[in-house]
Specification:
The chain is mainly beta. The chain has two domains: 121 residues, Tachylectin-2, Chain A; 162 residues, Exo-inulinase, domain 1 (Jelly Rolls). The chain contains one helix and 21 strands. 33% of the residues are buried.
Length: 291
C-alpha cells in the first residue's frame, strides 16, 4: 500500500490518500482489484481517481506513519496520524501544547463490492484502559435513550460500539454526544444517500477559524440492512470507525467542561428503528500519560 499525504481532502485542507498495489523496491503497480470507483450516489466525498482512496474522511488525519519494527510473530501493520489540519493547526485553542496524534490503528485490506479497501481499527492494547462497562441489546431507540439517560455522565473519555438494524427506506438516524448544557456533536447516517456525517459546528469552541465548522461527510454502505459504528471520545477528539473500520472520520473538538452524555435519534419514530447492540466503556486514559 502506498500513502500520499496531500491537500484537497474531502473535509478540506490536508488529508491522507492510499493506493493499493505492489512495490518491488523500484516500481509501484496498482492492484486492478482496487480500481473500482467509490459507490455512485449523491454525496460530497470525492470518487477514486487513478486508484487514490481516502484513509480518513475527517479533517484531522494527516501524515500517517506506520511502525517498521513490529515483531514477525505479531504480524500486524500499525500506524497513527497527526490529528490536525494545516488549515487551522496554528490556531487551535490549546495551551501549553498544540496538536496531538490519533489512536494507534491496526490496518488490513478487505474485499468489498467496490474493490479492495483499507480497514482500520483501534489497536487491541487500548482495551487495557477500559473501565466501567454498560451493555444493551435489541431495543428500540426510545428504549435505548431511556437506558442511556439512567446512566448519566460517561466521563471525559469513553468508547461506544453501536449496531443498528436499517430496513429499506429508513430515514436519517444517528447519535448525539452532549457536552455540558448546550454543546453537542451529531453523527448522522443517511441511508438514502449512503452517507455518514459528523457535525461539530456546535461542539464548543469553534470560533478560532472559519473553516472549523464545515461539513464532515463520507460515503458508507449499508450491508445486510445493518450498520456498525465504533467511536472513541477523548478530551478534545472523536475518532469514528464505521462498518468494521471501512470508513473512518477523525475530528478535533473543544467542548466545555461538564457532563458528557449520549443520545440516539431518528427522523422517524424512535419506536420504529432498532438498536441491536449498544456498548459503552468509560476509559481511564491517565495510565497512558507520560510520567
Amino acid at each position: 500500500m502506498l500513502i500520499v499525504n496531500t491537500s484537497g481532502a474531502p473535509a478540506g485542507g490536508s488529508g491522507c490518500q492510499y493506493f493499493v498495489g505492489d512495490f518491488d523496491g523500484t516500481r509501484f503497480v496498482l492492484d486492478a482489484a482496487a480500481q473500482k470507483a467509490e459507490p455512485d450516489s449523491d454525496k460530497p466525498a470525492k470518487p477514486a481517481t487513478d486508484g487514490a482512496l481516502w484513509a480518513d474522511y475527517g479533517p484531522d488525519f494527516y501524515a500517517a506513519v506506520s511502525w517498521s519494527d513490529i515483531p514477525a510473530r505479531d504480524g500486524r501493520r500499525l500506524w497513527l496520524g497527526w490529528m490536525s489540519n494545516w488549515t487551522y493547526a496554528n490556531e487551535v485553542p490549546t495551551s501549553p501544547w498544540r496538536n496531538a496524534m490519533t489512536l494507534p490503528r491496526e490496518l488490513a485490506l478487505r474485499n468489498t463490492s467496490e474493490g479492495l479497501r483499507l480497514t482500520q481499527r483501534p489497536v487491541r492494547e487500548l482495551q487495557a484502559v477500559r473501565r466501567k462497562h454498560h451493555r444493551l441489546t435489541k431495543k428500540t431507540l426510545a428504549e435505548a435513550n431511556r437506558w442511556l439517560k439512567q446512566r448519566g455522565d460517561f466521563g471525559e473519555s469513553f468508547e461506544v460500539l453501536a449496531e443498528f438494524e436499517v430496513p429499506v427506506a429508513t430515514d436519517n438516524f444517528g447519535l448525539i454526544l452532549r457536552f455540558g448544557t448546550n454543546a453537542q456533536v451529531r453523527i448522522t447516517c443517511d441511508p438514502g444517500l449512503r452517507r455518514i456525517s459528523l457535525d461539530r459546528s456546535k461542539s464548543g469552541r469553534t470560533d478560532f477559524h472559519p473553516t472549523f465548522i464545515r461539513a464532515i461527510e463520507a460515503p458508507i454502505e449499508i450491508r445486510d440492512q445493518g450498520l456498525q459504528l465504533r467511536f472513541i471520545v477523548d478530551a478534545s477528539s472523536i475518532e469514528l470507525f464505521c462498518q468494521q473500520g471501512e470508513v473512518c472520520l477523525s475530528a478535533l473538538i473543544f467542548p466545555p467542561k461538564g457532563s458528557r452524555q449520549l443520545e440516539l435519534f431518528s427522523d422517524q419514530s424512535e419506536e420504529s428503528l432498532a438498536c441491536k447492540l449498544l456498548e459503552v466503556w468509560r476509559l481511564d486514559t491517565s495510565i497512558l500519560s507520560p510520567k
